Amino acid sequence: MGWLSRLSAVAALATTALAAEASTSSKSSTAAEPCAQIAKLVKAGAPSFSSQLAVACLQSTPFKSDLAVSFVDEVRKYLEWHSTTEILRNPPPGALSATVDLFGGLANIRDRASANLYKSQYDFDADLFHLLSFANDGHLVIVPCSLVFNFRSAVRLASLSSNGIEVPRLYTLGDGKLLAQGNKDVSPVTLINGVGAEAFTEQFSETIGLQDPDARYNYMMTNVPIARDGNEAPGGYSAFPTFPGMHDFNLTYANGTQQSIPLTADVSSRLGTDFTFQTGDELWDAACKPKPASSDDSSQKKRADSSSSAKEKPAPETYPKPIVKDPFNLIIGYLPDDKGLEDVAVLTVPTFETQDLASGIPTNEIANFALEAQDFVLKAVAAGKSKIIIDVTNNGGGVVASGFGLVSVFFPNMTIFSATRFRSTPGTQFLVETISRFPGSAADPDLAQSGYFVPGLVKPDQKSTFDSAEDFLGPFDVLGVPSTAIVAENNFALTNETLNPINIYGQGGILNGTTPPFAPENIVILTDGRCSSTCTIFVNHMIPYGVRVVTTGGRPQAGPMQGIGGVKGAQVLAFSDIAGAFVAAQTLVQNATDSKKPLFTDKEMSVFSPYIPLQLEDLPLRLTGGSVNFRNAFSPFDDQTPTQFVYQAADCRLFYTAEALIKPESLWVNVADSIWGDADCVFTSAPRKAIKSAGTKTDSSKAAATSAVSGSTDESDEVEQDDTEASAPKKKKTKAPAHKALGLLLAMAEGLRG
Ligand SMILES: *[C@@H]1O[C@H](CO)[C@@H](O)[C@H](O)[C@H]1NC(C)=O
Ligand SMILES: *[C@@H]1O[C@H](CO)[C@@H](O)[C@H](O)[C@H]1NC(C)=O
Ligand SMILES: *[C@@H]1O[C@H](CO)[C@@H](O)[C@H](O)[C@H]1NC(C)=O
Ligand SMILES: *[C@@H]1O[C@H](CO)[C@@H](O)[C@H](O)[C@H]1NC(C)=O
Ligand SMILES: *[C@@H]1O[C@H](CO)[C@@H](O)[C@H](O)[C@H]1NC(C)=O
Ligand SMILES: *[C@@H]1O[C@H](CO)[C@@H](O)[C@H](O)[C@H]1NC(C)=O
């Protein structure tokens, strides 16, 4: 239970690794420093090196107890912003992941650091990284300085059912493709490192940033080898940001054959420089030693990246010919002609990351994305398609406005319900009080729409506001979390319809639909459980109209599976966003003080001060990245339980077949057969009534809102809706919280996202 036993699991892993190292290094005590050996290999052009060498190099980094202790103290101030800390320690019944005590674990790490029990920077960093990953929240991530290698393996596994209903078995991807071609002469993988292969996989995926165990199982698999965005998707066995605890994967097949697959390592781009280090100390200086702000080239690098423009991507191989295709494959529409899909259009939406300056996507992509969706829907209807599958397999989220925009393509001009809370602790209170008290805030759009300016906030009705900052800040006890009152993430009336087209309240801009293009019972959302943040917002806004969710794969057992297995939090905040917000607030405080109208008394400041963190560049150890889940989302029927902690089974569950490995649309055929034909599901949930009218009259939005509330009595446990916002991209990162919701951890393991 809790952090303690998990900590010992981590410690056990570390100890195993150390023992393995001790035996190798005693043999070769005269050999060169491990980091120097890596530098030599890299210089000679080797693409990778042994994981043993990588671990030995990491473990030769120095550990500086005093720096580590003060680093933990500062990191804690950032983690104070994470929205579910108390709930993770004491989750409501039905939560599927283990409990974790984040602050208890942090105190434990601090104690060990203080007692100088860590042998290297890497051992300390790995503990921090793993502590946060136990929360299974893709928004809660820390990337400490020494995580400079990727560990990789050639293991590619697919979980395959003979017919989509029978419990699946594990095969290598190569064998799965042979099966798909009719070659029955292959054996499933029965053991990995001597443990049942399925159980090993389930346990091995325990700390992935997905809250649902079936979603995590799918993460390990390569059941969709070419992702919907066209990238190769090699599965979770292919890459790890920390040493996974074993230097090889030994596969045993049902026919008794054994195969040993070694782990390798390479230098991550996170290091940001060539690997030329002769010792662990040199590596530490380059990766972990704080840099003076002026010599910081990483921000320059980022700026350079953002000016480069992204290249158009080719259409995904093995898929049918696209009818509508986004240049970056953010959204692709198909009209397949397979038997069983005669009436069915398919829209794949692998991401909502429509705004990603670092990758050079143009700024009007948020609008393009919505327009492409509308364009496809019109073409599908014109081609006589009456049904649609929206495939959001492995969609990690992105820009919230794009999620709402897509909902509004299918249900134009409906109301959108947004209800969130964030933590109310001295750190967040300082920001809200500063911006709400500062006399100039109302006149400054960045401050007025920052989400911290109380007169500018609206309640979920999108009309009323709060009488005072105190009214908003409470704090209110919500499952033990000191929280703000319920608030809409954004005031939709302020949404810029040119930049962020959302077809509600008659302000869709380029989105001009007036009637739903498909009946709700003719819309199916397909997920593999790996649906996080903005993806969950999209799905949870479609469900109340009567749209059904089909989910695929998961652990090899019959029974229900959640369609949404990723974080349902409404907003992620990077540590850099938090740092920027504090700088902005402190500037206002100083401004008011200079004008002889101080915002706070000394007594008030003494409460806030301990919660104001050092800026990232002033941290005692360098930090590569970090983020928290800032806002919890709530359904219209329950303002106490964040949607994150509500179990939602999909309407229908299917397993993968081998055929889908080489012909992805065969999965769409199976989905259509199960929902609109007479094929079975592995598990079917009891049918739900729609709680929102998707009537064809254009004036139905008011009626929809009313029915959403009146439907609450008997549907509360099944139908829920999450929240959130849409806002114009803010130029000044300082004040405006990122209006993004996406799983960072998932993006971290290089190679998993092509
Ligand atoms: C056993 O099964 C594996 C995996 O399908 C296969 O590669 C191998 O050739 C088989 N060995 C024998 C002796 O049949
Ligand atoms: C894998 O098998 C090899 C021998 O074939 C053995 O040396 C190694 O320890 C095994 N690895 C694991 C993680 O079990
Ligand atoms: C919306 O954004 C566009 C593009 O930045 C800008 O030209 C326009 O003035 C904005 N509209 C409103 C109402 O602010
Ligand atoms: C959408 O709804 C708003 C009111 O909510 C109404 O003013 C507007 O005319 C509607 N637009 C369309 C296209 O139906
Ligand atoms: C909506 O806009 C599209 C172009 O974006 C246009 O082709 C279509 O005619 C418009 N529909 C209506 C009803 O105005
Ligand atoms: C304080 O901010 C206002 C605008 O909000 C600005 O006009 C003024 O110059 C600032 N004063 C100081 C002392 O920085």
Reported for the largest beta sheet, the result is: 8 strands, mixed
Order of strands, widest sheet: 12-13-14-15-20-21-24-25
Cofactors, ions, other ligands:
2-acetamido-2-deoxy-beta-D-glucopyranose
| Portion in strands | 5-15%
**Portion in helices:** 25-40%
Task: Report the radius of gyration as a whole number of Å.
Answer: 26 Å
Coarse morphology: globular
Work out the number of β strands: 26
Q: Kindly, what is the distance between the CA atoms of the first and last residues, rounded to a whole number of angstroms? A: 36 Å
Low-confidence stretches: 1-30, 295-307, 696-739, 741-754
Q: Return the average pLDDT rounded to an integer.
A: 86
Number of helices: 25
Structural class comes to alpha+beta
Organism: Trichoderma ghanense
InterPro entries: ClpP/crotonase-like_dom_sf, PDZ_CPAF-rel, S41A_metabolite_peptidase, Tail-specific_protease
Keywords: Signal
Protein name: Tail specific protease domain-containing protein
What does it look like?
- This protein is an alpha+beta fold.
- It has 25 helices and 26 strands.
- Among the domains are: 2-149 and 268-290, no CATH class; 152-265, Pdz3 Domain.
- A hairpin with a 6-residue loop joins strand 12 and strand 13.
- The longest helix is centred in the first third of the chain and has 26 residues, at 2-27.
- The model is unreliable at 1-30, 295-307, 696-739 and 741-754 (pLDDT under 50).
- The structure holds 2-acetamido-2-deoxy-beta-D-glucopyranose (6 copies).
- One 2-acetamido-2-deoxy-beta-D-glucopyranose (NAG) is lined by residues 413, 505-506, 514, 698, 701.
- It comes from Trichoderma ghanense.
